[in-house]
Design goal:
two-stranded antiparallel ribbon; single chain; 2 strands; 242 residues; Membrane-bound Lytic Murein Transglycosylase D, Chain A; Serine Threonine Protein Phosphatase 5, Tetratricopeptide repeat; 3 domains
């Protein structure tokens, strides 16, 4: 008699344990069937999409990407990004992931066209509306290098004219020397000069014109033909202010 009682108690405990386990699995998180499809989350995502809550739908779909139907989820997310949110980068990413996971899907051909369209759109947005081909990019790069070379040459010529101007000023005076006047025109009216007075130094001249004594080296470099590597100034010397 006692053996039957113990068997009954054991059977009852076993049934209770199975019931607890069943309730635990059915109540913890979304139900996932044998296909790995997050049924409950998918239903909520579809409802959110119907209600126009697209960000909520994307968040729910995102939680389903670990399942066996990840390719389908990527496709649905791509459609939301493309047609609802007008976000080409998000759409492009999820369409590409769809093609990786479901390359033989009947929709793959149409999605491939969407990928090409979105790539052009993204490139257009990143270049402020201007799509540049590889050939055009190479051509523009070469033209830029040529312009930089020409600019360097012009700067070198300008320094040469400055040297002529400086020597002419010292030798014959600025106002009556035609070489000086021609050089001044080539250098441009923006070039400033200063006639050294008694007590002047490069640092004091820098402070007078630039509000700091730290520009004395720039003044020295611009007048190296006169200074010849020194900082000694002569009264009456005309300096170019860079």
């Amino acid at each position: 008699m006692s053996t039957k009682i113990w068997r009954g108690v054991f059977s009852l405990c076993h049934a209770i344990l199975l019931g607890v386990l069943f309730l635990s699995f059915s109540s913890c998180g979304p139900f996932i069937n044998k296909f790995g499809f997050h049924t409950k989350l998918i239903e909520e995502a579809e409802q959110a999409e119907t209600d126009g809550k697209f960000l909520r739908a994307l968040d729910l779909y995102e939680q389903c990407l670990s399942g066996a139907q990840a390719g389908e989820i990527h496709y649905r997310m791509a459609l939301i990004y493309d047609s609802k949110l007008q976000n080409p980068i998000g759409a492009l990413y999820h369409f590409q992931r769809f093609l990786e996971k479901m390359p033989d899907d009947p929709r793959a051909k149409a999605v491939s066209k969407d990928v090409k369209r979105l790539r052009l759109l993204v490139a257009s947005q990143l270049s402020d509306g201007v799509v540049v081909s590889r050939a055009d990019a190479i051509r523009l790069k070469n033209e830029n290098l040529q312009l930089q070379t020409q600019l360097t040459l012009l700067r070198s010529q300008k320094e040469g004219f400055r040297s002529v101007l400086s020597k002419s000023r010292n030798a014959q005076g600025f106002s009556t020397n035609p070489i000086t006047q021609a050089a001044e025109k080539l250098i441009g009216p923006e070039t400033r000069t200063y006639k050294v007075e008694k007590g002047d130094t490069l640092a004091s001249i820098s402070r007078k014109f630039y509000k700091t004594s730290q520009r004395w080296k720039d003044i020295a470099d611009a007048n190296q033909n006169q200074l010849q590597g020194t900082t000694h100034l002569k009264v009456g010397m005309t300096l170019i202010l860079p």
